[in-house]
Design brief:
By secondary structure, the chain is an alpha/beta fold.
Length: 444
């Protein structure tokens, strides 16, 4: 028999959910986004289910219409460090923007998290699409879409170079001789580029997994190229056919960049709603959807369009021509919204409600959801999934009712294979670039 492909699972930990009204649900805890016990409980549930990682999202700009979770929440690196102290195997992935951070600081933060967790850190590289971010960082103007990806490429290259400042065996700790480290195994970066000038070296060694795992979520043309060239795990969203096309496209692009497609993992985000019957699961969705007013739906719709105010248009008129706003903001998401509205001739009201209260395919019994997960995996639409939850009970319920079915089918682990995130994702440890140069020089 052919060996079954192995599934990867991550858990997105959103305190009061990712929607605009999840906090109103009877099961929700309104202050969960700043409740350390909530994060510990969710991380413990994910680790008990042998998930590969937990993921904490972020942005650096809010306004009065932002979703409740984004209005009041933890900064990712801080909460992930806290989670590291109460977990042992699960990976810890956090979002940090390249548009409003310095490579040296980011390199130190993630290297520190990697050591604190003993090799379980991952960086979700984002470029920040909300133009309001600039005003929070003493900037007059937010970079344009394609320029943000140019910044990202250089930022990431510098950060990875800093992570290689110390060769793996540089520290000898010889008390008798007094030699703390081998001096020729510490390297300055001396980078001078278009956006950054960084001397180095970094003041922390590499961890057991070499470097933190790079995550990304690009879906525009520039974003796909960046992800295929640099990322080791890529988030996406959509239905089966859309994600299957994305999967094939990214794997093809990765190969064209000289990469092994098997080391570029595609992980769609899903929101499973589980019921003992299809009717019970459908009722869960209807309950959540009933909490979202049209006003909140319009706020939600505005986010991919740079927080545009859609309330100025007739609700039952056609979807307005706002493509130019999305082009410089969250281009991939805004393009898909425009495409859906056009294909189905939706009004603004219909588009907003569809976007704010989506009913995905993963609504049903535990068996139905396990069947869908297996199909997506085997049909090459995904290498795994990011499990999202609207209420605190969502993740534990998935772990309790769906994970055992996946384990029984032999597509998901029963125990962790490795102690590092890179190991559990099946990714190789990157060789230190300075060690590689030394080896090549010696060979010549």
């Amino acid at each position: 028999m052919a060996r079954k492909k192995k599934l990867h699972l991550g858990a997105m930990v959103h305190g009061v959910g990712g929607g605009w009204a999840d906090w109103r649900h009877p099961d929700s805890v309104p202050n969960a986004s700043t409740d350390i016990d909530f994060y510990k409980q969710q991380a413990a549930a994910a680790e008990s289910g042998k998930f590969d990682f937990v993921f904490v999202a972020d942005s650096v700009s809010i306004n009065k219409n932002s979703s409740p979770h984004y209005l009041n929440r933890f900064e990712p690196m801080t909460i992930l460090s806290a989670i590291a102290s109460v977990t042992t195997h699960i990976g810890l992935v956090g979002t940090v923007t390249v548009s409003y951070s310095e490579p040296y600081t980011v390199a130190r933060q993630f290297a520190s998290l990697d050591h604190i967790s003993r090799g379980r850190a991952g960086w979700n590289v984002v470029t920040s699409w909300l133009s309001g971010s600039a005003a929070n960082y003493s900037k007059d103007k937010h970079p344009e879409h394609d320029e943000r990806y140019k910044i990202a490429a250089e930022h990431l290259e510098v950060t990875k170079g800093l992570w290689d400042s110390w060769e793996d065996d540089a520290f000898v700790y010889d008390k008798e001789s007094g030699e703390f480290f081998e001096r020729d195994k510490l390297h300055e970066l001396n980078h001078e580029g278009e956006y950054f000038k960084v001397k180095g070296p970094l003041n922390i060694a590499r961890s057991g997994q070499g470097q933190p795992v790079i995550f990304q979520a690009g879906s525009s043309e520039a974003g796909r190229n960046f992800a295929a060239k640099h990322a080791e795990a890529i988030f996406t969203y959509g239905n089966f056919e859309t994600v299957k096309d994305f999967y094939k496209d990214i794997k093809t692009r990765a190969q064209s960049f000289g990469r092994n497609p098997d080391e570029v993992l595609i992980l769609p985000g899903i929101l499973p709603l589980i019921g003992e019957s299809q009717e019970a699961a459908d009722a869960k969705h209807e309950e959540l959807a009933s909490l979202v007013t049209i006003e909140k739906a319009l706020h939600a719709l505005g986010r991919p369009f740079n927080d545009h105010d859609f309330s100025v248009y007739p609700l039952d008129g056609p979807f307005p021509d706002v493509a130019h706003l999305g082009a410089e903001s969250q281009k991939g998401s805004s393009d898909s919204i425009i495409r859906l509205a056009k294909q189905e001739n939706l009004t603004l009201r219909q588009t907003a409600l569809r976007f704010a209260t989506p009913k995905g395919e993963f609504v049903g019994t535990p068996k139905k959801i396990a069947d869908l997960i297996e199909t997506w995996l085997e049909e090459k639409a995904s290498d795994g999934f990011i499990i999202q939850s609207a209420t605190p009970k969502g993740l534990p319920e998935f772990v309790e009712k769906v994970v055992p079915l996946l384990q029984e089918r032999g597509i998901f682990r029963s125990e962790y294979e490795h102690s590092t995130l890179r190991g559990n994702l099946g990714l190789s440890v990157p060789e230190n670039r300075n060690t590689a140069n030394r080896r090549q020089t010696t060979t010549i």
